[in-house]
Design a protein that fits this description.
Elements lengths: L1 H8 L4 E7 L3 H9 L7 E5 L4 H8 L9 H18 L6 E9 L10 E8 L3 E9 L6 H19 L15 E8 H9 L5 E4 L5 E2 L7 E5 L6 H14 L3 E6 L10 H9 L7 E4 L4 H7 L4 E5 H7 L9 H13 L3 E5 L1 E2 L5 E2 L14 E4 L10 H6 L7
Parallel strand pairs: 1-2, 1-3, 9-10, 9-12, 10-11, 12-13, 13-16
Antiparallel strand pairs: 3-4, 4-5, 5-6, 7-8, 7-11, 14-15
Helix pairs in contact: 2-5, 6-8, 9-11
């Protein structure tokens, strides 16, 4: 085990670990081998419900569940990305478990372990026979599985051998974001969607409200706009990372995965290769698009319709027929004037498609361009 841990420390991967209910032996083992500072960015043990809820951002339906473990791992990944100073590989690793304690338990003894990387999400569910082991025995099994999960994520051989009994059960699943991103960029699928808890979909899913953008990086302005839109419409807001942009080249797979990782464990996110809003509307009929003022200006500029006003009107008519609408947030111009919906040259027949986010509900003047200039990593 010490050799395997040393091999983990010798890789470039760094981790944020969140352990609740069982698995702390793994932390002790990991830290007992020299070089742990090359692996561990931070380790958190949110044992109480308030601590658990505070890290997750809300109270989960169940504390020990696959969905909750995935959410914890996603939050850990976003934390790891923030903590790592360079651009090296990071993972978010989480365990939520319930094992032998000093009082009888009605439910089964189990652990859910999730590891989230920009490229994939790995989950294990370990179900243990009651009464077959003492607490130390169950703790050792859970810790071994967590360590194995981290080792494989670091590129070490998959050599898992758990001493399971006939009544124990181990199940697992992988959500392969990298494979889906490659399919999208090759034009083999029209979009991909990743829930906040990490489940991946490439069909049969459609958001109600969508906030598209480059998200380079995701920042508090985007989050504030999404919050205001959700409050105004009474509907959940998802984000869309645009892999194709009318003014920029197609994103690389690495860049797309990096941008999608910003939402891990927090918000639902889609990726498309649809550079125009009429193409987005065809993918997601009936959706309301949430736009910043600058994006709304581009939406209404003939330049993006082969330079012709008539083709712009044709595109808006198709968007109308597809049942889509636009919610527009204002922003301050370079001359210090606040620009909003009333400043847009919206053709009269299509004014009903547009609604403003009032400035008193949302106003955030930060830009991604500025954040990149100062080297900010954006919203935590």
């Amino acid at each position: 085990m010490r050799q395997r841990i040393q091999a983990i420390h010798d890789t470039a991967t760094m981790a944020m670990l969140v352990i609740a209910g069982a698995g702390t032996q793994m932390l002790s083992d990991l830290l007992s081998v020299a070089g742990a500072s090359r692996t561990v960015l931070e380790a958190l043990i949110p044992y109480s419900a308030p601590a658990f809820d505070e890290f997750l951002g809300f109270t989960p339906e169940k504390y020990v569940a696959a969905k909750t473990a995935r959410l914890l791992a996603g939050r850990a990944l976003t934390r790891a990305r923030w903590l790592r100073q360079d651009e090296g590989p990071v993972v978010g690793l989480a365990c939520t478990a319930t094992i032998v304690t000093d009082r009888p338990k009605k439910g089964e003894h189990r652990a859910h372990i999730a590891l989230w990387q920009p490229e994939r999400l790995v989950w294990y569910g370990l179900h243990l026979e009651k009464g077959a082991r003492d607490r130390q025995g169950e703790e050792q099994l859970v810790s071994s599985l967590i360590l194995h999960t981290l080792a494989v994520a670091c590129g070490l051989p998959d050599t898992l051998t758990l001493p399971l009994g006939s009544a124990d059960r181990l199940e697992g699943d992988v959500q392969d974001f990298a494979a889906a991103a490659a399919q999208l960029l090759r034009g083999e699928i029209p979009f991909l969607g990743i829930y906040a808890h990490g489940l991946l979909r490439t069909a049969d899913i459609c958001p109600q409200v969508l906030l598209p953008g480059a998200f380079d990086p995701l920042h508090m302005g985007h989050l504030g706009m999404a919050r205001a839109a959700s409050e105004l419409l009474g509907k959940p807001v998802a984000f869309e990372v645009s892999a194709a942009n009318a003014d920029k080249p197609l994103l690389t797979q690495e860049a797309l995965l990096t941008r999608l990782a910003q939402f891990a464990g927090r918000y639902p996110v889609y990726a498309t290769a649809a550079p125009t809003f009429v193409q987005k509307a065809r993918l997601f009929p009936g959706v309301t698009f949430v736009l910043g003022f600058d994006t709304a200006v581009r939406l209404l500029h003939p330049r993006y319709y082969r330079g012709t006003y008539s083709q712009m009107l044709t595109a808006l008519r198709e968007i109308e027929e597809l049942g889509c609408h636009f919610l527009v947030a204002g922003r301050v111009s370079e001359d210090g004037r606040f620009q909003q919906l009333s400043d847009l040259p919206i053709p009269r027949p299509f004014q009903h498609l547009f609604q403003a986010i009032p400035a008193e509900r949302f106003r955030e003047d930060v830009s991604s361009t500025y954040l990149r200039a100062i080297g900010s990593k954006g919203a935590r």
